[in-house]
Amino acid sequence: MRNDDVRALYDRTMREHARPDGPGVRVERDGPLVRQVGGPDDWNGVVWSSPDLDAEGADAAIGAQIAHCTAHGLPEFEWKLYSHDRPADLGDRLRAAGFVPEPPETLLVAPVAPLTGPVALPEGVTLRPVTDAAGAELMAQAHERAFGTDGSRLLLQVAKRLEEAPEDFVALVALADGEPVSSARMELHPGTGFAGLWGGGTIAEWRGRGLYRALVAHRARIAAERGYRFLQVDATDMSAPILVRLGFTALGTTTPYVYRPGR
Fold first, then answer.
1. Can you state the percent helix, strand and coil of the chain, rounding each to 5?
2. CA dist., res. 215 & res. 26, Å (int)
3. Between 3.40.630.30, 3.90.79.10, 3.30.70.100, 3.10.310.70, what CATH number should domain 113-228 receive?
4. Mean pLDDT by 10-residue block, N- to C-terminus, for the chain (263 residues)?
5. What is the pTM of this model?
6. Which of 2, 102, 248, 263 has the most crowded Cβ, counting Cβ within 10 A?
7. CATH code that applies to domain 3-107+254-259
């Protein structure tokens, strides 16, 4: 498929007809937008906006999302803006309304099959599927050590997903001498053909040894076994070059615009 066709398929199946990313959340249409709605510990935000959205409609839609966030007492609300979304100045309008942009990421997609080959792990490293609370704790520890951020929210989300809806969710942690040194997860979206790779991170002293690549290959094999055609990643500047070398193609960028009431 051409890149434009893959992006159109992604927009239609993963954004316009998005599915909830976990238990206790719902996806709803709000005029020209599609958003996910959940509790304060869930991801709340806009995942799709109509390509016909004009300047007047954009301002009205932005105001409606601010009102929604405030009425539900959410600590934050995200508008996930893609580089091909319209109107062209939508980012400027979000900033003017109080949304704060976070670093942009590259939307990368690759066919699953070429990524399923074996990748050797470094000596002394094992991959452990995350299937229970103890595994979720190890995953959160690896995340904290790799990214230098608090992993408590991730721990809550993974534990909840494993308890209530584990069937379309894959999580892994890499252990070196029993210590968590890398982790990653995958969201499977039945009926879309896309599996999303999330959270791949390795602690500094273990980078450059093939762990990231091994985690991609392991998840690709699972996606292939379940009949998925494409892997999708919202990649940071650190991971994007690795993924491009593995065969991923950039379809654009995505920028999280975050609204936090009272700030």
1. 35, 30, 35
2. 29
3. 3.40.630.30
4. 94 96 92 96 95 97 97 96 98 98 98 93 94 95 94 91 92 96 96 94 94 95 97 94 96 98 80
5. 0.92
6. 248
7. 3.40.630
